[in-house]
Amino acid sequence: MQRAVLVGCGAMSKAWFEAARTMGDIEIVGVVDLAKERAQARIAEFGLTAAIASDNLSAVLAKTNPDLLFDVVVPGARHATVAAGLDAGCHVLSEKPMAETMDEARDLVGRAGKAGRIHAVVQNRRYLAQIRRIRQLVASGVIGEVTSLHCDFFLGPHFGGFREEMRHVLFLDMAIHTFDAARFLAGDAASAVYAREWEPGNSWYSQGSSAAAIFEFTNGAVFTYRGSWCADGLRTSWESSWRIVGSRGTIVWDGHDDIRAEAVTSGKDGLFSGVTAVEIPPLDASHRIGGHLGVMQDFIAASRGGDAPETAGSENIKSLAMVFGAIQSAESGRRIEITI
């Protein structure tokens, strides 16, 4: 049984408590929030009668000596929270984004390395079964080498609150899921980007609700992203709609349940190469799924001596760099080299 402290009791924290309860071998011994009454409410809601409620993280860490820290704080408090957990000898699992700046992200990667502890990020979309199936199909080589990936994300949610006031809202608040998925599907990292943001006349956002980006990957593949959070009608899924083009075929995914693929056979059919439909195999049992729970299970396994989680900070920083690179390009109007 591992002991954990959870920090941040906003709406997102409920999924964390539920995932920890589902796993069953994690004891939450401390719950911290700036509003102590919210920590007390979560303790009561999940029957954690032995847990300490507090508004002081340092005091709880000193008193409980936990193995794990679950970081569900707002991004502005992330660096200090993760640093405190690593300094206390905890393995840390954080909400996304892993940091507010690249400098902070680099610092956390360095701190985790020096402490000999794991810092991972809840990049839960890559644990969806359909994304796992597509990655499995790409890795099989059936469409050859990936030469380009293309995705569309078009929704019109009226969130209210902070999102409608924040700058770079689409890139900062949502696109990291898509960018991380592109990295995962391509098995590669981005090396450069050219991006643009704009605000349509019907937008109810302050800035950055609509955007496009062209990423160059290190192996020569190109990833294009088109998106909007003020696009009414004919919505895509929250996971985007995708086309993955390879040297020997193509995969398309509607972002829901429909995955289709065709691969080159032999000979020509008039102007075009002959192709045939590819059966989409079921997911191999070795691939963990489960969204938030899947991320937590990989993190816990790693904390017990297993393989490093695929969303470890040293990997997730590559997705974060895509976000900040796109923002820098949109602000400057220039192609930006992406560095970690």
CATH-defined fold name of the largest domain: Dihydrodipicolinate Reductase, domain 2
Instruction: State the low-pLDDT regions, or none.
Output: none
Instruction: Quote the beta fraction.
Output: 25-35%
* Element pattern in H and E: EHEHEHEHEHEHEHEEEEEEEHHE
Globally, the shape reads globular
CATH-level-4 superfamily name of the largest domain: Dihydrodipicolinate Reductase, domain 2
Regarding quaternary structure, how should these chains be classified?
single chain
Tally of individual helices: 9
Describe this structure in words.
This protein has 340 residues and is α/β, with parallel strands linked by helices. The protein folds into 2 domains: 2-121, NAD(P)-binding Rossmann-like Domain (Rossmann fold); 125-287 and 319-337, Dihydrodipicolinate Reductase, domain 2 (2-Layer Sandwich), CATH 3.30.360. The chain is 34% helix and 26% strand. The chain is built from 9 helices and 15 strands. A 9-stranded mixed sheet has the order 14-13-12-11-7-10-9-8-15, with helices on one face. It has a 6-stranded parallel sheet with strand order 3-2-1-4-5-6, with helices on both faces. Strand 13 and strand 14 (272-277) form a beta hairpin. Helix 4 packs parallel to helix 5, helix 6 packs across helix 7 (169-186) and helix 7 (169-186) packs across helix 9. The chain is globular, with a radius of gyration of 21 Å. The relative contact order is 0.15.
